[in-house]
From TrEMBL:
It comes from the Bacteria. This is Uncharacterized protein.
Length: 68
């Protein structure tokens, strides 16, 4: 994602101030980046929940296992 941001910022340097579509492209790119960040955040949340679930199951199994 950092490469996408860098490429986008670099491309802005070549934009003409008279280009009527430049603002719309900026909006589209920022919208896309926001969606990517939201998806990444959602994925992280799911991963954390999976880890928490596995830890809970491990604690239950450990608590139920007989001491040797």
């Amino acid at each position: 994602m950092q490469l996408e941001i860098n490429a986008f910022v670099s491309s802005l340097g070549g934009e003409s101030d008279q280009d009527p579509t430049a603002l719309e492209r900026v909006r589209d790119t920022l919208r896309s980046l926001a969606e990517d960040l939201a998806a990444l955040n959602f994925g992280i949340v799911l991963e954390v929940r999976d880890v928490q679930r596995l830890q809970t199951v491990a604690r239950i199994i450990h608590a139920d296992s007989p001491d040797r």
